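User: I'm putting together a teaching handout on how multi-component assemblies are represented. Below are the sequence lines for each component of a complex, exactly as they appear in our records. Could you produce the 3D structure of the whole assembly as structure tokens, so the students can see both representations side by side? Please keep the chain order the same as the input.
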Amino acid sequence: MSPTSCQTAPPRDIWLGSRGRGAPKNAKYSGIFAALPGRQAAPWPVIGGRSPLLDWFGHEPFCHPLLRCCGQPIVRRVPAGDSRERDVCEHCGAVHYVNPRPVVGTIPVWEDTVLLCRRAIEPRYGKWTLPAGFMEVGETTREGALRETVEEARARVAIGPLFTMIDVPYIEQVHVFFRADLLDLQFAPGEESLEVRLFREPEIPWQELAFRTVAQTLRLFFADRARGEFGTHVQAIELPARLAQAGRP
Amino acid sequence: MSPTSCQTAPPRDIWLGSRGRGAPKNAKYSGIFAALPGRQAAPWPVIGGRSPLLDWFGHEPFCHPLLRCCGQPIVRRVPAGDSRERDVCEHCGAVHYVNPRPVVGTIPVWEDTVLLCRRAIEPRYGKWTLPAGFMEVGETTREGALRETVEEARARVAIGPLFTMIDVPYIEQVHVFFRADLLDLQFAPGEESLEVRLFREPEIPWQELAFRTVAQTLRLFFADRARGEFGTHVQAIELPARLAQAGRP
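Assistant: Of course. Below is the structure of the complete assembly, with chains in the same order as your input.
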């Protein structure tokens, strides 16, 4: 089969899911997946052993990079020497691994207050969060946390010890927060924030926080502060269904 | 342009790089990248702002999933609302993010000894390592560390506190090690190990360790044990060139 002929199965189907940040601000999605107009939908492969429905976290439309590598269909099987199913291209031998992604951020502190940002982007538009975001290649966790603090809050901080590492397996993320001291009060909303302000503990908008890892990190922070000693906390946030499946309470 | 015609640019070029584990045990690569036989090589895109040469860590051949999504060429540009260049498909709007990958493992302890595994796979075939590997989707960091301990050393452990989180930005990884107590001595080499044994501190084969993060974790472990108090250590291992570029000593 000539690699330049039409018989090499030029991609005809697109998987529109959702992932990560950067979605068009006004984008609306009527469903989890859709075939591109005029293109034929295909059966969706299952990524990482879970249903593609679980990709509906975050709001980035993407055509799945695993569907095609060299233009041949991807097969779901256990590669030699491996123990779990992967997306494999039988044509060129490529194995397309999918791994969880680190999210890194800070807890910026000024006297008895903590800095929060009100999100100007989806998901959780208008909700409050600690400055945090996806770690980029080529940077360390601390560099990533600092970068996000500048991008979202235009805040200058001295970064401190690791405070929380919270697994969120059902969205394939690990959230890492460092304690940080604000160096001045010259913060301001970055492009991804509507508003940035300092909160004393009783003022924290608990019902208006964007993410469970942020709420958990803040709860642990105030608890540690109250007892006068800060630890490093490794925890996981799981869906009730997954806990039941794993036989855990 | 009809999406099913030959004019939709059926993929003609393949990027053979290297990534992760699972490479055929006898595979030999004469260079960093090669065009598939009978296919035309293309200029390589730069991933994550670094040279593709840096992909020569690990030994997994892969055809780059970012080169094509819906069959159109990928463009390197800053997407709307973003601040750095990404691989973007102008045809379907997909933004292909690349993020660092977590590696998770344990420091299995029995009395005054630590368990190490001698690798039966590339990279670092024949070198000694702590049990560790790429975190899988759907699991927590602790679950992944436990799984790797079973897979590589058939060892049953009670997992303990986070001990090291070491960034390795030049290979886009974050290595996470938990302290762990061996529950019995019924360990044995898994498929990825030639040999598994316990080492007292003076017996550690420092010159035969597989990875710098393993050596650093063991150094910190013995130092903390000597002073009678274990901490949580967040560090980075960097290439001298990168340190110089960042103006760091």
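A couple of points students might notice: The radius of gyration of chain A is 21 Å. Chain A has two domains: 22-98, 101-236.
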